[in-house]
Amino acid sequence: MLFPTTVAGSLPKPSWLAEPDKLWPKWRLEGAELAQGKLDATLLAIKSQEDAGIDIVCDGEMSRQHFVHGFLEFVDGIDTEHRVEMGIRNDRYKAMVPQVRGALSLKGRVHQTETAFARAHTTRKLKMTLPGPMTIADTVADAHYGDKIKMAMAFADLLNKEAKALQADGVDVIQFDEPAFNVFMDEVPTWGIDALHRAIDGLTCTTAVHICYGYGIKANIDWKNSLGDEWTQYEKIFPALGKSKINQISLEAINSRVPLKLLSLLGDKDVLIGVIDVASDVVETPEKVVEVIAEVTKYVPKERIVCGTNCGMAPMHRDIAEAKLVALGKGAKLAREKFA
Description:
Layout: H1 31-52, E1 56-58, H2 69-72, E2 75-88, E3 93-106, H3 112-120, E4 125-131, H4 133-137, E5 141-142, H5 148-168, E6 173-177, H6 187-200, E7 206-210, H7 218-225, H8 238-242, E8 248-252, E9 270-276, H9 286-296, E10 305-309, H10 318-339
Parallel strand pairs: 1-4, 3-5, 4-6, 6-7, 7-8, 8-9, 9-10
Antiparallel strand pairs: 2-3
Helix pairs in contact: 1-3, 1-10, 5-6, 9-10
């Protein structure tokens, strides 16, 4: 199939499960009710994707409050009680973060419950997401390793363990989210990709890395407005990603100031392009989706294009997000007819 569709990862949580319209919402249920509510929301996420015509569905990250901290909850060696303030994404914004105070290890499986549930309730290809090692290392304070790279590699080993288990659970695509890849441009080719390779070691399923300019939140929007008319930062990392062992590269395309000609630097990789803007409440038309896809085909063979969202949709209004998913499915269908 040309132009298969998917989402970057997160979808808005139902208001009965968690606070709406927030990136890091508080749960509205507790104990056994929360556990069941997470699965009920996962089923809703799968159903809404299938109804919208999404080909590679995901769990919507319904069991996680945050894409990084949802993983960290299952890691020993992290002190979450004594948080410290730290600059995130090269000091783009400040956050109170947990501290790594000992050797890192997994407490057990991280996403087994929701993955098994999702796999049992869809016959479509299933994608699960994990935070990338560089991004995790940029989201916690190191009070143990004394070396950011060493700590990132330790996280990569834990990610690899969970990723192999997810593959055994029947997951078709495992995506690592690395927003730090568009911040630390000099470090990505020198050790960021090596850490990613460590995280995917031994996997035979499709692997992807998601790089982006972030959710549609104020800190990210303000930062993007400071970057000028053309976002050419990817020039520094695309050649290295093109030579990497990752199967798919995921990044934004619609309403982005990334020159699409840079996509030719990714070599023979499949390119997962964002044709849905998560920083706007305006619902795209299917025709607009086709327009973006057509522009990308100038630089990437149509057989290697996967269509999705610019980033996660967790902070969006739920009805708007669902309408955008429908536009994604209908737009990809129109594009298949146009390019058949």
